[in-house]
Specification:
Blueprint: E1 15-17, E2 20-22, E3 26-29, E4 32-35, E5 39-51, E6 54-65, E7 72-79, H1 84-111, E8 113-116, E9 119-122, E10 126-129, E11 132-135, E12 139-141, E13 145-149, E14 157-161, H2 166-177
Antiparallel strand pairs: 1-2, 2-3, 3-4, 5-6, 6-7, 8-9, 9-10, 10-11, 12-13, 13-14
Helix pairs in contact: 1-2
Length: 178
Amino acid sequence: MFKKKPITISEENPLEIGKLKVYPNKLQYKDIRCNFLDIEHIGWYWLSQTINGLNTQNTKLHLYIRGRKKPIYLKKTTMYVTPKIVEAYNYIAKETFQNRLSFYTSQLGEVGGFTYGKCNIYSDGRVVSNDKTFSLSKADIEAFKITIKQGGLFSSKVKIDLNLDRDVILTLIDFILK
């Protein structure tokens, strides 16, 4: 089997995806330059599907930068090959993980829970949405969403979209459930 060569990112050799250049501790997109510490949230979506032998991979990356109203938005669709934007996401997510995690853990420390989407998720496993309480222990976790039912067949349910800070949220949920 072919092994993929690991990427090397340096000041002299940034990872380039279109107009995005990723350096060891910063990035540049068009005329926007920022350090990784300025990245507050990452929106990410990646769908790889094969239909009738035809594989397509769709990716969307949103970088929410402190002080900017609009995020940097990149989108790429490829056939049969993994888009380079996946490498950029993996690198940026790894480098910004602790900073993004602290946004939610500071809320956990102050009030015992954090707000994500339209839900409040508490350290005891409760999820409150629209004045209804759900349990994380009943969560059905999929690639980019979480669905939680209250109880029976016709009971209320909440859907939580995981497109924003997915890696951080799944880590926190895993911690809460253990």
